[in-house]
Amino acid sequence: MADDRYRLTYRIRYALRNPRRIRPYLRRAWRDLRFRLSGRRDHVAFYREVMRDDVASDPKKAVGSATHDRWLALGAVQFDYLVEHGLRADHDVLEIGCGNLRAGWRIIEHLEPGRYWGTDISPDVLLAANRTVQRYELQVKEPRLHLVDDLTFAWSPSDRFDLIHAHSVFSHCPIEVIDECFAHVGRILRPRGRFDLTFNATRGKEHHVLHEDYYYQPATLIALAGRHGLKAQVMDDWAPRHKQAKLRVTRV
Ligand SMILES: C[S@@+](CC[C@H](N)C(=O)[O-])C[C@H]1O[C@@H](n2cnc3c(N)ncnc32)[C@H](O)[C@@H]1O
User: What is the pLDDT of residues 224-236, one digit of tens each?
Assistant: First the structure.
């Protein structure tokens, strides 16, 4: 957990240690400024533009994997954890922020037909997700891929999902977006269902980098879940597998 990432001194030290990252950072800073000046202050609209820009160069990089091998590996890490924690073929699964199905194609393959739902705010990444379905010949599994512009789940019936999964989505979201999700997710989760999400954890000051990467104290998200009648706990057995922390949210 990086505690002082928000400090200018941390950023200067980081830049000196990683000079090759300076140019990409400046490119993102310039993009952030352009998108904000063009009036995209709503986070979903802003992040949709970020994804449009990133997917145009490479959908795998847009979801955070520099190479195909890393895309495969991080999908496997997510999927293996879900299976270890009891994901069954007859479960109904929603993946929030499914991206181009890095983990999703494995989940779809594992489930019975019609049991996977993926949502995303980015039409460009959902087109890439369609291509992943075709590449892995998963059409017979009838996955549903939905474009959304909020996290109210108004499109879903109540008590619909055994598992809701979100990897590296809330690490890109301001607190009001997570608040909206927590306010509504309890309605669509089955009583014994679970909602696993990852986030960037910090013990220091909560902050964001260029409105793209957000850092929270675990206690903030646990308290937020509690305010919406949900129970949340950090999953310690996830920690060795990935730099983001995992929170498990359940109905009380
Ligand atoms: C880093 S990618 C991760 C994609 C996928 N979960 C994976 O692990 O490959 C983040 C994804 O979350 C989506 N996203 C960001 N904010 C979202 C929101 N508020 N609701 C739904 N999806 C969102 C982005 O469009 C992007 O596809």
Answer: 999 999 999 999 9
The 10s digit of each residue's pLDDT in 15-73 is 888 888 888 888 888 888 877 777 766 889 889 988 998 999 999 999 999 999 999 99
Q: Is 103 in the pocket of ligand 1 (CB under 6 A)?
A: yes
Distances (CA, A) of 188 to 128, 136, 218: 27, 29, 24
Alpha-carbon span 39 to 42, nearest angstrom: 8
Cβ–ligand 1 distance for 177 under 6 Å, the answer: yes
Counted residue by residue, the chain has a size of: 252
The answer, yes or no, to whether any atom of ligand 1 lies below 6 A from the CB of 64, is: yes
CA 101 to chain centre: 11
Please indicate whether residue 168, judged by its CB atom, sits closer than 6 Å to ligand 1.
Answer: yes
Alpha carbon distances (Å) from 239 to 4, 35, 243: 20, 34, 7
Distance in Å, CA 15 to ligand 1 centroid: 26
| Domain segments of the chain as ranges | 8-251
Is 24 exposed, middle or buried, given 0-12, 13-18 or 19+ CB atoms closer than 10 A? Answer: exposed
Question: 8-251 maps to which CATH number?
Answer: 3.40.50.150
